[in-house]
Amino acid sequence: MKTQLVIFEDNENLRKSLVVLLNSSEEYQVVGDFPNVLKAGNQVKDLDPDMIILDIDMPGKDGISVIPEIKESKPEISIVMYTQFEDEDKIFRSLCAGADGYILKKTSPMVLFQALEEVRKGGAPLSPAIAKKVLASFHQKANNALKYNLTPREIEVLKLLIKGYSIKYIAAELFIAYDTCKAHLKNIYTKLHVNCGKEAIAKVLAERIIFD
Amino acid sequence: MKTQLVIFEDNENLRKSLVVLLNSSEEYQVVGDFPNVLKAGNQVKDLDPDMIILDIDMPGKDGISVIPEIKESKPEISIVMYTQFEDEDKIFRSLCAGADGYILKKTSPMVLFQALEEVRKGGAPLSPAIAKKVLASFHQKANNALKYNLTPREIEVLKLLIKGYSIKYIAAELFIAYDTCKAHLKNIYTKLHVNCGKEAIAKVLAERIIFD
DNA sequence: TTTACAATCCCCTATAAGGGGGGGATGGAC
DNA sequence: GTCCATCCCCCCCTTATAGGGGATTGTAAA
Questions:
Q1: Which DSSP helix (H) or strand (E) runs through B114?
Q2: pLDDT(A39) > 60
Q3: How many Å lie between the alpha carbon of A128 and the closest alpha carbon of chain B?
Q4: pTM, whole model, 2 decimals?
Q5: What is the spatial distance, in angstroms and rounded to an integer, between the CA atom of B150 and the C1' atom of C3?
Q6: What is the average per-residue pLDDT within A68-85?
Q7: Which segments constitute the HTH luxR-type domain (chains A, B) (predicted)?
Q8: A110-115 own/partner pairs: CB under 8 Å, 24+ apart
Q9: Strand C–CB B177 distance below 7 A
Q10: Which of A114, A127, A205, A212 to mutate to test the interface with B (most CBs of B within 10 A)?
Q11: Chain A residue with minimum CA distance to B71
Q12: Of B71, B125, B198, the CB nearest to A164
């Protein structure tokens, strides 16, 4: 039973080459190839492939935009992005939409085939440069607590604040008076350059300043 | 100029084998190997390696816990986790702390060497199973807005709320009355099962329900 | 057509939170 | 010793927010 593929790629030469190469293998069979994703939803539904190779920059409609539609109709389908773009916006939009892999065209086509193999085995192939960006998104800013000169006590208060707790509750949790807690928060807001608790929570969580 | 390595691994046989194998290569030189991370900070500072192979489960102290210390003293150092654990908690704690790669021991040792190569070239090696979990952490984000049955307008309001904006400001931004905005927020709070804006921000950002 | 609901606006009240003071105790740095 | 930072506590006052009520449109489904 060959793995059935559909390819969306607007470069005719590249697409046809992929079709020929993949069809010559024992493992893969290209059941459809298209230069755009304007009718991707129906095409995928009709052809019912196991895997999709998806370019991003195509005439008419962005490749990323069809991912949700496809994943919704058949969640177990594997979508491998195959593109020249390595800007974070496109990467994260693709991955969030549900892409299972992200391979850059600038790497050798060999890598694409290895990636397909990896997907077949249940992995998630990412080009090294992509993996690096993905990992970087996890790295929390090193010791931002120091950066803002927060005292240990202020950090304790802040940690509870970003859980959404009320001032009253935070005070109780730390066994200090309500007003003391407010005083700490006042100092925290000053140091973080924000004006209220909501801003503080937003800033801390968005920048991943504290995270344990 | 060989790439200088330090290895933290409590399994004597495994560690010594890695030392021998890596030292036999042209590219690597193991400048230190230790069965625990109790003095990792100083050891790394003294030996000043380019790369670190780091186990997680070691006697005395968790491997993950020394990552921040190491990264702080030398941010450009590459840390590759080499462990048997594939539970999400350890993975994400490692990556958040600053790990540059995460390789499972159950894969062949060959893979570790490939991973080191990849790091040398500026990549970020992840075992397929790990990469899949990392990608999965991006995927869930998509449908969460739907999960809570938020209307498009409510999502708009929520997006502004999680930036830390005041109700007044949000209302102005959306060209609606203050009370309308409050009404939306009331519905949002109900749907998210929270009692106030701070809780809502905390919940949304912590669960990555919305993020564009 | 009736029902349902999203989106809009308004009123009122109680509580939570922010902003401004001041003061006292500790412990380390100079 | 003095100085300073930290941490803790208390007061007052204003604003922001939450929670409750109700009402009107338009739209879309039943």
A1: helix B109-120
A2: yes
A3: 4
A4: 0.75
A5: 21
A6: 89
A7: 143-208
A8: A112/A18, A112/A53, A112/A80, A112/A82, A113/A21, A113/A22, A115/A80
A9: yes
A10: A205
A11: A142
A12: B198
